[in-house]
Amino acid sequence: EVQLQACGGGLQQTGGSLRLACAASGFTLPYNIGWFRQAPGKAREWVADINAGSSITAHLDSVKGRFTISRDNAKNTVYLQMNSLKPEDTGVYYCTMATLYWGQGTLVTVSS
Fold this sequence. Notes:
With 112 residues, the protein is mainly beta. The chain has strands spanning 3-7, 10-13, 18-25, 33-38, 45-50, 57-59, 67-72, 77-82, 91-97, 101-102, 106-111. A hairpin with a 3-residue loop joins strand 9 (91-97) and strand 10.
């Protein structure tokens, strides 16, 4: 059974940092893995993704320079390092394998 388990969310002040982790089970990475987020009352939006070999990453313009996606295939885990957090980064963050399988989400709250 394919499972994605996201963790690492929490409450941070503006300017703080968090590192999210997405642990995969039931399949071995390499697959493209992405992070999405959903703010209260808004649609889910793509944040970042990384290809199987970690050679290609992409980030939403509003998080470029602040967020970094990475992966450790030996640990079957993908990370999202989030620095210089802003209140608009608040939301539930989901990891996904090629948008076919989704984790349960982890809540990030950034206070002003």
